[in-house]
Write a structure and sequence with these properties.
Layout: H1 2-13, E1 21-26, H2 30-40, E2 41-48, E3 51-56, E4 65-66, E5 69-75, E6 80-83, E7 88-97, E8 101-111, E9 119-130
Parallel strand pairs: 1-9
Antiparallel strand pairs: 2-3, 3-5, 4-5, 6-7, 7-8, 8-9
Length: about 160
């Protein structure tokens, strides 16, 4: 009985689980990742000739954070920001800083193993992201001023 237990422990420890299949593509996620960056960033601005300032709403962080906020960072060519997740990792590297866009190389890796598939998908490519000004609070959508619009309900608590 002890021999069977030892054999099972050795088998599990040293790889009886099959190696996951890896599918690699190029530019497959380009459109999706361009949209993700544009929707997740509050601000993308050229700081100077060598740096771009990024301010992320949630998803992205960088080890080159400014003022202690990992979601706000200034990056030069070759520096990275990423999406930290144990299933889906996306790393963006600044490739080029232009007058109207920043060019980012990306690599995304998604592990399907936790979802029952023995598969890892990898995609790499390049996206062009235009600079983006932060939206000021006064620039938000105007309130509905139609005659049928109702004022917000008031709730009284006793």
């Amino acid at each position: 009985m002890k021999q069977i237990l030892v054999i099972l422990i050795v088998a599990v420890t040293f790889g009886c689980t099959p190696t996951p299949k890896v599918e690699e593509t190029v530019d497959k996620e380009r459109a999706n990742l361009t949209t993700l960056v544009m929707e997740s960033m509050i601000e993308i601005q050229r700081k100077d000739r060598e740096h771009v300032h990024f301010k992320a709403e949630q998803l992205f962080v960088s080890e080159r954070a400014t003022s202690g906020n990992p979601r706000e960072f200034d990056l030069a060519v070759g520096q990275v920001f990423f999406h930290p997740d144990h299933h889906y990792r996306i790393v963006f590297t600044v490739r080029e800083i232009d007058d109207s866009i920043v060019v980012l190389d990306y690599e995304s890796v998604f592990s399907h193993e936790s979802f029952g598939k023995n598969l890892i998908t990898k995609d790499r490519g390049t996206i062009n992201v235009p600079y983006k000004q932060p939206v000021a609070a006064h620039q938000s959508a105007p309130a509905d001023s139609s005659p049928t619009a109702r004022p917000p309900a008031l709730i009284f608590i006793r």
